[in-house]
Design brief:
246 residues; alpha+beta; Beta-Lactamase; Arc Repressor Mutant, subunit A; 2 domains; five-stranded antiparallel sheet; 8 helices; transcription; GAF and ANTAR domain-containing protein; GAF-like_dom_sf; ANTAR; WH-like_DNA-bd_sf
Length: 246
């Protein structure tokens, strides 16, 4: 093989893998209305899809509520939970509003108590990427490696893209939850239809708009195509959730 071709090929594969991860994450969260359930799905999908990442966690700060955490492995759940101490890579990423990296925890001195616990649990490297959800929620996506120097620049780029995409998806989850609560108060409506709510979530993620605007987009499409609103929603959800060709 031409050595000069290896880097472009590797970069292309990396782009395809990242695109597949973001697509899988979207498909996994479009029908979720519970924030904690969404966090659990996020850390599981990220762990399973990223080679070199052994565990994944999420730390969330919610206005007026205790800090929340999710972990792909319950054994490591305490590493993401601020009740065990605020001095951690997750909290540093949130405070500094930028990605935090430690490729080798054996040489790490920034978070001594946290690092000691992490190393006891087998963690050897960490990336924490700040996630902006909405005006009331901010968090950190935490990727853990079980081997030293396993986290590469590609992992850092993927973590940055994943954090941005996760922020949009989690914001949509919170909007759907608010819309569902409002629908419960006002009585049955379009968003009470599960597939319509899922389609609204997809449009909110794609356009960065609120639930009311996304629903109006769906209604306009239904009018233009002269087909029922539910059918438009089913087509959209089916397209986004369709498995990739192998």
């Amino acid at each position: 093989m031409n050595l000069g071709m290896r880097e472009p090929v590797a970069e292309t594969l990396g782009v395809l893998e990242t695109a597949a991860l973001l697509r899988e994450l979207t498909a996994g969260l479009i029908g979720v209305d519970d924030f904690d359930e969404a966090l659990a799905a996020l850390v599981r999908i990220a762990r399973d899809a990223m080679a070199g990442v052994t565990w994944c966690g999420f730390t969330a700060l919610r206005a007026g509520e205790p800090a929340a955490a999710a972990a792909s492995d319950e054994r490591l759940a305490g590493l993401d939970d601020l009740r065990h101490g605020p001095d951690s890579p997750a909290m540093e990423a949130i405070r500094r509003r930028e990605m935090v990296l430690s490729e080798h925890l054996g040489r790490e001195s920034r978070w001594p108590d946290w690092t000691a616990r992490a190393r006891e649990l087998g963690v050897r490297g960490v990336i924490s990427a700040q996630v902006d959800v909405d005006e009331q929620v901010i968090g950190s996506l935490n990727l853990y490696a079980g081997a030293t120097d396993a986290l590469t620049p590609r992992h850092q780029l993927t973590a940055m893209l994943l954090a941005e995409h996760a922020g949009l998806l989690l914001a949509a989850v919170r909007d759907r939850a608010r819309s569902a609560a409002e629908a419960d108060q006002l009585g049955a409506g379009p968003l009470g239809d599960g597939v319509v709510g899922q389609a609204v979530g997809v449009i909110m993620t794609q356009r960065g708009c609120r639930a009311e605007e996304a629903l109006e987009v769906l209604r306009s499409a239904a009018t233009s195509l002269a087909i029922p609103l539910r059918e438009v929603a089913e087509r959209l959800v089916s397209t986004v959730s369709r498995p990739r060709d192998s």
